[in-house]
Amino acid sequence: PAMSARQRRKQQQPKLQQHHEVKPDKTEQASSGSGFLSWRSSFALTCLVAIAAGYFTYRMNSRMWENHIHFSHLATIEREMFLTSELGFYYSFFKQVVEAPTLFDGVRLLLSDTLSEHPDTINALRRFNLYPELCIGAMYRVYAGLAQQFGWHTRDCYQVNRGSDMPPVQSCEGIGEPMYFYVEVVYLLSGLTAAGLALLASYARPEDRPCPLSGVIATVGYLGNHRECTRVQWTPTLRESFSFPLLVLHQICLLNFLRRGGTEERPKSVAVLLLAGSALLFLLPWQFAQFALLVEAGALLCAHALGYLGHRLTRLAMLALLLALALAFALQFGNVMLVSSLLCSALLTALPLLQLHQLISRLAPMCIAAPALPVLWLCCTLLAKAGLAWLLGAEQDSHMWDILLSKLSAGRTFHSMMYTCAKEFDFYDPQSLIELSKTLALPAGLASLAYVCYRVAALVIARSRQYRARLVLGRPEPPVCVPAESPGVDAASVTLACQLVGFGLLAGLIMRLKLFFTPLLVLHAAALPMPAANRLRLPALLLLLCASGWQGSANYAAEMSISGEYSDWHTEQLVYWIRDSTKPGESFAGTMPVTATVRLVADRPIVNHPHYEDAGMRARTKQVYSMYSHLSLADWSRTAKSLSVNYTLLVKGYCRRGPAQCRIYLSGQRLKIQTRLSCANSWPAGRTSCGLI
User: Fold this and answer.
1) Regarding beta strands 677-680 and 169-173, do their DSSP bridges make them parallel or antiparallel, or are they unpaired?
2) Contacts (Cβ under 8 Å, ≥6 apart) of 130
3) Which is more confidently placed, 398 or 676?
4) Dihedral angle sign, alpha carbons of residues 579, 581, 584, 585
5) Which among 325, 375, 372 is positioned nearest to 347, based on CA atoms?
6) What is the model's pLDDT at position 638?
């Protein structure tokens, strides 16, 4: 009998493969490095590896900090003087909270800060990301109260003789000393970083059970490349010391969110709340945290565009990040920098673009639809950022664009040079790549990335062919789940790989941001996403462990051998002079490292400080630094009066062409008697403290 057109079409239709996620069977798991263990045994062993990694890292960082400056034998004033620039500025707020009569008084001092930007009163919690100092200060007050109530012995004090030319000082050590307590909390957090990386590496592969061997490799790789992963051992009070451990926690929550949700299932509300809560904790301590979450948002969009992440799950992730940003904005008392940030613009533009991408994916093959989403998102984010900044009149992060333009072109400004003159904001050092190659972190990490890219490319090609076949048959709707031809790669793997690429670009532009790139590179090297059934995977992991341990032990020994003493008698004399010769309400202006020391050690108001993420403060700092130009003494006097400056701290070393370039210095030397200029020149090493009366 004659067949209808519909019957003929049905008979000619090729059988398309059903797309679903497949789990490796038990035989595959047996060769994955942990298949000979039960799930409980693998989980227990992974937890032991994480605990050991965290404790060893905590002890190592504490030891290096002690070796670096002989911390235990320093007096309190010497310890505070060592924390220069940002280090001392942030610690001064912890000192305020601890020394206030009550915790409520300490919070009030942060909300009404009169020392940081004299003569203005500012909300320090809104401006300076000070929740770590507030929380640690509250913890210390509770601990000190309990120790006093129960009679605990918390510190030992003794006298240190510093030589014939310096008076002896009293030095105290123990957890009852405020700075000891503060630093111990920081290094406990650094231990959580290593523990979190071990857990991430163990669960990074899409398998039913964790792989403890990957956790061991991640720990060895992190410790062997420690100087490339962090600088917490030298600069414990920087914002990244608090924020990066919380980023690792957020990545664990992200991995749980993606694995629980899959491509079609609805994730539990607990997973969404954990994702938002961990992002909030990561945002609060550090103003640069927004760039890491920006890269994460882009990685999630790329995973969605490639078909590894469902529409609903991607939308929930964006809403969770947006919720975290809104809560951070509220907890920072309406910090405009968060609203006008690239992260806010990126999240707001991602939500409508997800709807648009559903239409594009039906009208175009995957080879066109996949790159269309991230390209459109990037363009719309930049336009939305410019629009929000213009609408709100926000210029808090304009110096970031100055830094970027100064790196990509010859254009320079005063503010960009304040950053680019520092090594941390230079381009990525090629020597770091050599060091990473010696421990095989770079080759193994790139090999893992290449494997993921290969699987993704194969998926895109297969999807494009399926689209053409469906288009011929009149059914152009693309499949919605990951096909089974992508073993060892899932939404979490693709998201981590995209983040590695994004962090690599950031580290290439600003070397300070390599703290995002290097740990994630070590994580990729330890995960090694080879198919579980591949018998070469276990020998490859063991080879990587041996190579990393061999070179890493040499790097560890070299880092532990660094030792020194700290002493700065000239700055100490300056502090004593300020304490004895000036009144508590008189203000100081000078270079940012010096003013931070004045605020912390001498407890005097300052007019400029190292926190540079405010347009008004950048303008004020430029005015203060004009004293190192050819500005005359009379012109500087007018500038100082407009800023309500009582004392100017002049560091001769900032005169690049010698003291002759600084006319203020010469005028002060010639006219310090005729003009009412009192100068304390008793300390050499280039420091002159002049009081404009």
Assistant:
1) unpaired
2) 90, 93, 110, 124
3) 398
4) negative
5) 325
6) 87
Confidence (pLDDT) at 19: 38
DSSP 496-517: HHHHHHHHHHHHHH-GGGHHHH
pLDDT for residue 263: 46
> Which amino acid would we find at residue 528?
L
Is the CA virtual torsion 182, 184, 187, 192 positive or negative? negative
* pLDDT (average), residues 43-72: 92
Closest CA to 322 of 386, 372, 369, 272: 272
Question: What's the mean pLDDT when you consider all of the chain?
Answer: 82
Contact 33, 541 (CB under 8 A): yes
Continuous segment of H or E residues that includes residue 377: helix 366-392
User: Which residue is listed with tokens 């950022």?
Assistant: 385
The CA-atom distances, in angstroms, between 138 and each of 128, 145, 175, 350 are 18, 11, 15, 39
Distance CA 326, CA 336 (A): 11
Distance, C-alpha 373 to centroid of its chain: 27
H helices, E strands: number in the chain: 30, 6
Helix or strand (DSSP H, E) at 107: helix 103-111
β-pairing, 169-173 vs 647-651, is unpaired
Q: How confident is the model at residue 8 (pLDDT cuts 50, 70, 90)?
A: very low
Residue 440 falls in which region: left (phi positive, over 0), alpha (psi -120 to 50) or beta: left
Q: Which residue has the tokens 């994480």?
A: 50
Is 413 buried (19+), middle (13-18) or exposed (0-12) by CB count in 10 A?
Answer: middle
Tens digit of each residue's pLDDT (9 = 90 or more) over 264-281: 456 678 889 999 999 999
Decide if 218 contacts 444 (C-beta within 8 A): no
Q: What is the pLDDT of residue 30?
A: 41
Given a contact cutoff of 8 angstroms between Cβ atoms, the answer to whether 488 and 529 are in contact is yes
Q: How far apart are the first and last CA of the chain?
A: 111
Cα-Cα-Cα-Cα dihedral sign, residues 47, 50, 52, 54: negative
The answer to which of 65-74, 384-393, 519-528, 668-677 has the lowest mean pLDDT is 668-677
| The two structure tokens encoding residue 188 | 């406990």
Closest by CA to 83, choosing from 285, 234, 286, is 234
Contacts 24+ apart (CB under 8 A), 388-395: 388/339, 388/340, 388/344, 388/345, 389/340, 392/336, 392/339, 392/340, 394/336, 394/337, 394/339, 394/340, 395/615
- Where are the strands (E) in 310-417, listed by range? none
User: Which of 21-35, 114-128, 597-611, 640-654 comes out lowest in average pLDDT?
Assistant: 21-35
Rg of the Cα atoms in the chain: 29
Q: Choose among 188, 133, 180: nearest CA to 155.
A: 180
Is the pTM higher than 0.85? The answer reads: yes
320: exposed, middle or buried (Cβ count in 10 Å: 0-12, 13-18, 19+): buried
CB-based contacts of 206-209 (< 8 A; 24+ apart in sequence): 206/259, 206/488, 206/489, 206/490, 206/492, 206/493, 207/24, 207/29, 207/32, 207/34, 207/532, 208/23, 208/24, 208/29, 208/39, 209/29, 209/34, 209/35, 209/37, 209/39, 209/42, 209/43
| Of 302, 268, 279, nearest in space to 502 by CA | 302
